[in-house]
Amino acid sequence: MNYYLLSFAWGICILVSLIGWGGAVNRILFPDYRVDWGQRAAWGIAWSVIFGGLLNVTWTISQATILIYICLGALYGIIDAWGNKTSIADDLNRLINAFKENIFFAIGTVIACLMTAVQYSGSVSWHKFNLHDDYHAYFVFPHKMLQIGSLGSDPFSERRLVSALGGQSFLHTFSLSVLDERSLYLIDPGCALIIMIGLIIGYCQQKKISKNSTLMIVFGFLSISRVPHINITGILIAVCLFLSLFRVFEGEHLKGTNIESNAAIIGLLAAAICALKSTFIPPCIILFTCSYFFYILGSHIKRKAIYEFCLASILLAMFILPWSISLYQSSGTLLYPIFGRGFHGSVYGGSVKLPNSEIPPNLAIQLTLYAILTIISIPTVLAIRFGIIGLGKKPIFREATLSIFIGAVTGNAVILFSTGGSDIYRYSYPLLVVMFVILISVLGENIPPNNLNIKIKKNAFSGALILAFLVALGFQSYKNLGKFQNPLDRISRRLNNLPLVIPQERDKYARMLDSVPEKEIVLTRLDKPFLMNFRKHTIWIADYPGGASLPPGMPSFKGEEKLADYLISKSIKYVAYSYANEANFPKKSLQVRLSPKWPFWLRNQALNTFEFQDSLQKLGESRKRIYDDGENFVIDLSRNKNQ
Taking CA atoms, which of 403, 494, 508, 620 is between 20 and 30 Å from 124? Predict the structure, then answer.
């Protein structure tokens, strides 16, 4: 079968499986309340991320495990759909009747479906990935999971330490269990795009927003869904989980008396968001805390509200603990940087610095303005909610809308300052999209629908839609939009079925590792380390050299012999290096990153990477090369060149 068609079909199977697992969560926690398919899919993602943490810490991930998991979820999804076929048929009949009554709604729906299909199809198979982030880390992590059962130990990988706990990498095993690296955008943005549309439709139905207005919101989302993918870490998946958590806080079923179920679903979703990517943790925790603060404040029985908050917090910590244990075993901290920086290079006082160690004057001005806007905006929104809207019209409950706004603004401020202002557009995107959906629907819900205000309501709704659209477009700079490939162009290219990696390259990597005695530790600085066999050796990857290392820290700018002595002291005798292309980080073309015009984060990474690669090149001249294919070498640090 053509690889593209296989990938397309497997993505649909994954989607059905996620809906199935979410349906199982729904049945266990809320047996008397059936949520829509978009919400079930989001709950399926959350459960999968948390279940993946258990498999990871117990070293039980494998191709067979993943396939069984996906098939069980898909089977339950199909059985559940069959059991509710009458309800599904009624929904389809109502939709068909709406098409007959409004031809423009029918045409708009068809166009929206085509746009969704095209964007999903464009995510099915890619050939253009990040040569640094993806090749050195985000391709490696799911491969290691499938080969050795876990992320395992990788103390020299900075991304393993600072980027994420591993939830997104586990989701990537769903693709790699059947397909290859070309399909690592299949789940995000592929399946996530469809799930997000399901969440929007379900939310609009929950708020009794008209079908025409719902269609407008879907079009608005599709127009800004060309996600700024710099690498394969999750973005749209996080959008789905944030919107799902918001909908749970807003949902009527949380007003019931089953405190344990309420706490479980909230803890599950929040923990999954935290496990996906470290930059999602601040806004998620702030959203979680604010919502419960308002819930306790407005609750008539505060004892129950406090009990639910405590239980949800405990469950959140328990759900995320397996991922944290794995990180501690690998990189020396349960959660970077909240519980310590672990093996991060900045701990050792060398040349590796934190991203916010240096703030240029122009960026300092921007950060100051952002801080001022943050300080002003939150009291303003609080005044609108409790002053203008007031408690008479809307008593305090969980205040999901207000909480997610506070979480978005303050959470992004934390990330903005901690990263030194680098790539904030990418880190803020998930909450921007969620706020877009909420802004439209809340305005449509809160303006009184009496005859005198119909025109005002329509104008406000349309104005909010246009405003949110313009904000979203303005948020993504032109240069970043230029990085995205047209989905139709991607589809036409991928149908040619060209491989990302040719078999000869895989064979070359196999021969390289065969030169090293089994069970030995190998430190690598290769152009495609994801091609290695992680079963035969303990392989550690210096993704950004010096960014993370075992105590007392990798020596930098002290000469190659000091580096060799340090590595040998850590039982690392063998080092592999792609010297021909300098591990896709050539000094000649990337030396521009040392310019003060570049963000300090990238400058510091480039400075340490060039120094490390220069040292490896010198060690390659003085130490025994046990393997050399003209592009990569493996050296034995314990043996001189002539031994």
Answer: 508
Assess contact for 574 and 322: CB atoms under 8 A: no
> What's the confidence (pLDDT) of residue 426?
66
Rounded CA separation 436/464 (Å): 9
> What span, in angstroms and rounded, lies between the C-alpha atoms of 424 and 42?
25
Please name the residues in contact with 369: beta carbons below 8 A apart, sequence gap of 6 or more. Answer: none
**445 exposure class (CB count in 10 Å sphere: 0-12, 13-18, 19+):** middle
**Angle, nearest 10°, between helix axes 259-276 and 236-250?**
160
- Mean pLDDT across the chain: 84
Record the tokens describing residue 354, joined without a space. Answer: 């934190």
pLDDT value of residue 381 = 74
Check residues 337 and 224 and name the one with the higher pLDDT.
337
Distance CA 137, CA 134 (A): 5
DSSP 8-state code for residue 190: I
Across the range 66-90, mean pLDDT stands at 92
* More confident site: 256 or 29: 29
At 30-61, the pLDDT tens digits run 988 889 999 999 999 999 999 999 999 999 99
**Using CA atoms, how far apart are residues 515 and 635, in angstroms rounded to an integer?**
10
Q: How many residues does the chain have?
A: 643
Q: What is the pairing mode between strands 633-640 and 574-577?
A: antiparallel
Instruction: Please give, one letter per residue, the 3-state secondary structure of 482-514.
Output: CCCCCHHHHHHHHCCCCCCCCHHHHHHHHHHHH
Give the other-Cβ count within 10 Å of 595's Cβ: 10
Rounded to the nearest 10 degrees, how much is the dihedral formed by the CA atoms of 23, 27, 31, 32? 10
CA distances (Å), origin 416, targets 369, 411, 424, 435: 12, 9, 6, 18
Coil/strand/helix, residue 73: helix
Distance (Å, whole) CA 559 – CA 171: 41
**Torsion of Cα atoms, 148 then 150 then 154 then 160, to 10°:** 140
**DSSP output for 28-97:** HH-TT-PPPHHHHHHHHHHHHHHHHHHHHHTT---HHHHHHHHHHHHHHHHHHHHHTHHHHHHHHHHHHH
Q: Is the entire prediction scored with pTM above 0.70?
A: yes
Q: What is the C-alpha to C-alpha distance for residues 110 and 129, in angstroms, rounded to an integer?
A: 32
Give the strand pairing for 623-628 and 574-577. unpaired
**8 Å CB contact between 526 and 632:** yes
Q: In what order do the strands lie in the sheet with 521-525?
A: 538-541, 521-525, 574-577, 633-640, 623-628
CB atoms within 10 A of CB 246: 25
Residue 538 exposed, middle or buried by CB count within 10 Å (0-12, 13-18, 19+): middle
Distance CA(429)–CA(141), nearest Å, equals 24
Residue at token pair 């703030």: 359
Comparing CA positions, the residue from 133, 403, 74, 174 lying closest to residue 270 is 403
What whole-number distance in Å separates Cα of residue 163 and Cα of residue 544? 12
Q: Are residues 412 and 432 in contact, defined by beta-carbon separation less than 8 angstroms?
A: no
Give the lowest-confidence range in 165-169, 277-281, 407-411: 407-411
For residues 75 and 25, what is the distance between their CA atoms, to the nearest angstrom? Answer: 15
Instruction: Compute the radius of gyration of the chain from its Cα atoms.
Output: 26
Residue 324 has pLDDT above 70, yes or no: yes
- Report whether 242 contacts 404 (CB < 8 A): yes
**Range from 98-107, 286-295, 437-446 carrying the lowest mean pLDDT:** 437-446
For residue 579 the two structure tokens come to: 């010297």
Q: Is 366 buried (19+), middle (13-18) or exposed (0-12) by CB count in 10 A?
A: middle
Is 634 in a helix, a strand, or coil?
A: strand
Distance CA 243, CA 405 (A): 12
Stretch 209-222: mean pLDDT:
82
